[in-house]
Amino acid sequence: MQIIHGKSGWIEIICGPMFSGKSEELIKRLRRAQIAKRRVQIFKHGFDARYDATSIVSHSQMSLPGVAISDINEVLDLVDDRTELVAIDEAQFFSEDIVSVTNKLANQGKRVIVAGLDLDYQGNPFGPMPKLMCAAEYVSKQLAICMSCGDPANFTQRLTAATEQVIVGAAEIYEARCRQHFEPPTEEIIKKENKEQANG
Ligand code: ADP
Q: What residues contact 135, with CB distance under 8 A and at least 6 apart?
């Protein structure tokens, strides 16, 4: 992806299924910015303690320290005026306020890089990701490798019967699948999930 630098800021999205290398790509872009001596601040959603509660960590163990938050609006208070690059990982878990927050940061002249799952385990758009992708100047869609056939994989297959949209975990609960091998949950499981959510 070629980014043409202007005077104003901009938003970059890195999206795709689990294991598609979103965290690796985010870490790569951040390391290059740090080499260029840019002032960087990194945030991630608070309840993703996949390996380390205060770091962005990839499945291949690359990591960079970040600050865990649960309300995306906190970013506006935490970002220093001098910061040039703001990175946000696991964006799918945040509220739709992430669109106005990232727009504000970009309007202040900052480069904003956001990584997140674009589809949930049902194969539906995940949280604020569609609106965020519309707001962004640059969108990079990553694909993983299908664990059934080795083709490019656009979907995240949940391997357990659990029904919540958000289960934070890794290899033992999810795997990447292509269009042909992705099996979305049955109507029965989705109805059970809706009932559980309605009951709080
Ligand atoms: P994401 O943030 O998209 O979940 P990560 O950047 O954390 O992805 O991890 C990507 C790494 O995961 C790959 O470089 C590879 O080492 C590993 N990996 C494990 N399973 C797969 C798979 N099915 N397809 C591609 N990479 C995989």
A: 11, 99, 102, 103
> What does the alpha-carbon distance between residue 67 and residue 55 come to, in Å, rounded to a whole number?
7
Spatial separation of the C-alpha atoms in residues 157 and 120, rounded to whole Å: 9
Paired strand residues for 144: 153
Whether 118 contacts 141, CB under 8 Å: yes
pLDDT of residue 51: 47
So what CATH class is 10-142? alpha beta
Give tens-digit pLDDT for 126-182: 999 999 999 999 999 999 999 999 999 999 999 886 655 555 556 678 999 999 999
Mutate to test the pocket of ligand 1, among 15, 55, 60 (most ligand atoms within 8 A of CB): 60
Catalytic residue among 12, 25, 90, 175: 90
- pTM for the model: 0.89
Q: Report residues of the chain scoring pLDDT below 50.
A: 49, 51-52
Phi-psi region of 33 (alpha: psi -120 to 50; beta: other; left: phi over 0): alpha
Which residues on neighbouring strands pair with residue 57, listed in sequence order? 63
Task: Give the residues surrounding ligand 1 with Cβ less than 6 Å away.
Answer: 16, 18-24, 58-60, 144-145, 147, 176
Location of structure tokens 């269009």: 179
Tokens of 34: 């740090």
Tokens at residue 49, please? 């303690």
How is the chain split into domains, by residue range? 10-142
